[in-house]
Amino acid sequence: MIGPTRPQFVLFGSSIVQYSYYEGWGAILSHLYARKADIILRGYAAWNSRRALQVLDKIFPENNTEQPSLVIVYFGGNDSIIANPNGLGSHVPIQEYIENMRKIAIHLKSLSESIRIIFLSTPPINEAQIHDNSQTSNSQGQPLRTNESCRIYSEACLELCREMNIKAIDLWSAIQKMDNWRDVSFIDGIHLSYEGSKIVVKEILKILKEAEWEPSLHWKSMPAEFGEDSPYDPVGPDGNTTFNLSNFPFPESIEWEYN
User: Fold this and answer.
1) Are 14 and 45 in contact (CB under 8 A)?
2) Annotated catalytic residue, options 14, 15, 49, 185
3) Least confident of 12-21, 105-114, 134-143
4) d(C-alpha 135, C-alpha 139), whole Å
5) Whether residue 188 lies in the annotated active site
6) Percent of the chain scoring above 90 in pLDDT
7) Is 14 tagged catalytic?
8) What is the pLDDT of the chain when averaged over all its residues?
9) Ranges of H-type helices in the chain
10) Which of 79, 185, 191, 197 does the annotation list as catalytic?
């Protein structure tokens, strides 16, 4: 570990998480919280909720001295893939998926009384964009992923979160609010582009801003590390004063809240 100690935000999930540093929502969060929190990536491409449970206590040990301040969890897209008749692959039946996500939530809540949790529901897909990819259909030519299946798993996740009083983001609906969402939201029909990732960030920041959590985890409310004024700060036009850049959003022209 290096100091000073910062709040830890852990992004835990499958490829939507692992690839989120490729011009994605994880990279944007890391940028906004660069002097406020450590954004820790725990993404595992192709994983489902069943495999996540197998290593949950290794990723989030109960006996750690320091526990995360926030965990953002995403599983569901791979769980929702059509079942393989041989039992192979990532499909998880809907009821098992619900119980797996419940167990993940229970474990995370047990780590600390102050831990905050946000679940991301399954986003939509662009079926036409992935149609020609041989890895997106089974041996009978049936599509492995459908937008309707994503909707079912998304709604199951959201219902569980309502039941357990966990903050949740309805990605399936949020992304489809854009008129041209199919054209701009994805890199390959499944994984999120920069435009799709901006929707994820907008929804995360909305929760962090509106949640009555103490202390607040919204980036504008958190103190910047070494944020005090210094005579070594850049000198202003008058030549007699300095200006502090510790809370300066870069580039200033971008509206990071995406309102």
Assistant:
1) yes
2) 14
3) 134-143
4) 10
5) yes
6) 84
7) yes
8) 93
9) 15-18, 25-32, 49-54, 56-59, 94-111, 127-130, 147-164, 171-175, 181-184, 194-210
10) 191
